[in-house]
Here is the input.
Amino acid sequence: MAGVEGFEAEDVEQLSQLIGLLKELIESDQYAVLILPERFVEATQELRSRLMREGRPTPIFAFVPDYTGIKGKRIEELRRSVSLAVGAELKL
Here is the structure.
């Protein structure tokens, strides 16, 4: 990936460091996309929700599967959001 900068967070136990780093990256306005392992979907939910409620333009949070085998977290989150938006539970 050209133009990519990497930052490291091993696991959710480093959550406070991860959230702090994400806040710094968002505040810097230098990044349009933040790519995170899918295992961080739930750990970043509160931060992402708060940014949306504030109506601030934020980077895109892209979650990708990794070697941990955790899959489907982001899809489940999207399914719940769309279900709430249309007023009916979607089945995938």
User: Anything to note?
Assistant: Residues 30-86 form one domain.
